[in-house]
Amino acid sequence: MDEKDVATQPQETGQNPRLSGQDEDPGRPEGAEAPPSEGALAPHARRSEAVGPKPPAPGGKLLSLKGDRAFQRLRKGRAGRGRYVSVKWLPAAELRVGIVVSKKVGKAVVRNKVKRRLREILRRLHLPQAHLLVVASPEAREADFAELFRDVVRALRKSGLVQ
User: Fold this and answer.
1) Which of the 8 DSSP states describes residue 19?
2) 8-state DSSP, 44
3) Known PANTHER family for this protein?
């Protein structure tokens, strides 16, 4: 087949050469394109933009106590004790928290669980600005969230940080 034999101009039949008349959708306007692909994400969007920002934690992110000096200063702070935790605090310009869970509490998985619970409890409480140290006792591993919550509040009340 030679190039001379191939038609370069569409045939003038008045129909779209891609679809025959019987296969055409009569309700679709001529020249309409396919709808954009459906789904949660647009092709150019990143997941974080499409889903939206992650909601903030109930009380916001807690700032950690940093350095040995901060922990040493807390030795002179006001103290309170509960069944599962003991707390010490000093007034400060911002709220900073140190959580101590010793190996006596259990293996790493158990210690991390206790720390996560204590961090969440402290986030939920609206604490005044202070440097706060929370030390978990070995019995804290048996406490559920509600018991630990009540005990932290009890210790904070005894220390005078909250009413």
Assistant:
1) S
2) T
3) RIBONUCLEASE P PROTEIN COMPONENT (PTHR33992:SF1)
- What is the fold, at CATH topology level, of the domain defined by 63-159? Ribosomal Protein S5; domain 2 (3.30.230)
- The pair phi, psi for residue 76, each rounded to 5°, is -90, 0
DSSP 8-state code for residue 12: -
The mean per-residue pLDDT over the stretch 55-76 comes to 80
Domain residue ranges in the chain: 63-159
Closest CA to 60 of 107, 31, 100, 97: 97
Contact indicator for 117, 84 with CB cutoff of 8 Å: no
Among 96, 101, 125, which Cα is nearest to 113's? 101
The amino acid present at 131, given as its one-letter code, is H
Q: Residue 51: how many CB atoms within 10 A of its CB?
A: 11
pLDDT one-digit tens code per residue, 81-140: 999 999 999 999 999 999 999 999 999 999 999 999 999 999 999 899 999 999 999 999
Give the pLDDT of residue 52: 39
For 131-150, the pLDDT digits (tens) are 999 999 999 999 999 999 99
Contact 69, 76 (CB under 8 A): no
Nearest to 149 by CA among 125, 121, 124: 121
* Tokens, residue 131: 């440097």
pTM recorded for the entire structure: 0.63
